[in-house]
Amino acid sequence: MKSSHSNILAVVLLLFFLTQSISLIAQPLSDEQNYAGNSPAVAMVQTVFSATVYVNRVAINERRFNLLVDSVKKLDTSGKMLSAGQKLDLIVKALYKNPLRFFSPTTEYLRQQHRILSNGTGFFVTGDGYFITNCHVIDRDSSFIRQQFILSTFQEVTDANIAALQASWAMTLTDEQRDLLYNSYSLIYSQLSSMILYDLQKDIYIIYRADNGGDKPFQIKKPAKLIVKGKAMPGKDVAILKLDDVKNLPSLKVSNDSITPIGEKVLVYGYPEPATTNIFLAGEANSDPTLTSGIISAIKQSIGGFPVIQMDAAITHGSSGSPVCNGKGEVIGLATFGSLEQATGSLASGYNFAIPVSVIKEFLDSAKVKPQVSLATLLYNQGLDYFYREFFNKALKKFEEVQKLNSNYPRLNYYETLCTNKIDAGEDRESFMQKNFFRIMAFILVIGGIYIFYKWQKVKRETFHNN
Q1: In whole angstroms, what is the distance from residue 43 CA to residue 25 CA?
Q2: Percent of the chain with pLDDT over 90
Q3: How far is CA 264 from CA 191, 313, 322, 326, in A?
Q4: How far apart are CA 39 and CA 269, in angstroms?
Q5: Higher pLDDT, 162 or 392
Q6: Residue 68 has what pLDDT?
Q7: What whole-number distance in Å separates Cα of residue 55 and Cα of residue 89?
Q8: Whole-angstrom Cα distance, residue 242 to residue 298?
């Protein structure tokens, strides 16, 4: 009889502790927790092309221009029919209609120093600075570079020429007049002027977020060295970079699964150009990556002979090199290219592609790089796990350990502050359980006692009737 009562009490206590521990079992990560854990390891890549540019100076033909001005003056000899602005408008339109008549190249060269920026996204796969991005982000072809230098130089030289004309005429040009002159110079420089690039250099930088306990995050910009690279699409568009003299940086876990099921949810972290260049956003807003989500729509074969992941998660210019992660927060691909609308030539939303982790691992293996989550990230993610299960004291201890390893760990101060506030408000789950442990145990014992008494009475009645 005593053994039966002890078994019943043991079952009651076991049920209690089971109900308390069910919530401790690892649950699938929410999108919020995924972002909290992964976003610190995502960074911006910036490739800077610099060169000295020599371009033919273009001069106005003074004789023909003076004849033009005289002809406009003859239209209004009284000076009352046309305003000064209207006369200027006639002159500008005449220059626009036949710019090659009024401008000609000289033997003099203008010397300009120019820098062209190419931005993209990437992510750390080790705490000591190994970093993955797309090859095309850091390795532009020569025709693209020359085109960008031409456009940049043309813009600067044209602005200077228009400003000089405006000053010499002592008139303020309207927007329409400036556009007409701009188009005129566009034709002139494309047909009459030559350009020479000298001392072309390329520098690669990784720009990542850091926190120092202040109100606003800041960014650290460091030069990166190229370890290994493939070729831009249709080649294997992967590059591995390295930062020196760093440790315990945030890092992402690379998935061991070579096959990604169609229909699985994916999360993409990156720096899309429309968000990073938006004039209404504060500069520090660019330190946080943008999260987009979708599903894997298909696994396709590229013309390069390797598989690519089709997904409907949004990406655009600047997203190249973004990590594509599964629901567990693991990297399964590298966002690389989109699709173009045949009619407009613009990017088609919802038809984007990523290079799978199997191709990424080829480059990691060739560089003898073993992706490994840093100790700081392991502790930080443990802290997040405690935080989202409302064990704020335990979370805070983990975050304090991260602080000792990397005091600039992104979003660390944010979560430390939240934990402290939650603890002060008495919301820590473990504290609640500790404070109410004896009440809970007393309640269980009372319920268990009632249950045992009921069973004892039942057994007693059955024994009495049997006798």
Answers
A1: 32
A2: 46
A3: 53, 12, 18, 8
A4: 7
A5: 392
A6: 85
A7: 29
A8: 32
- pLDDT class of 15 with cuts at 50, 70, 90: very low
Q: Is the pLDDT of residue 103 over 70?
A: yes
**How high is the mean pLDDT of the chain?**
83
Q: Token pair of 138, please?
A: 């850091």
Burial classification of residue 202, based on how many CB atoms lie within 10 Å of its CB (0-12 exposed, 13-18 middle, 19 or more buried): middle
Measuring CA to CA, which residue among 323, 369, 377 is closest to residue 130?
A: 369
Q: Work out the angle between the directed axes of helices 437-466 and 2-21 (0-180°, nearest 10).
A: 150
157, pLDDT greater than 50: yes
Of the listed ranges 11-20, 75-84, 261-270, 390-399, the one predicted with least confidence: 11-20
What is the chain's length? 467
Token pair, residue 96, equals: 């626009």
Q: Is residue 197 predicted with pLDDT exceeding 90?
A: no
The pTM is what?
Answer: 0.76
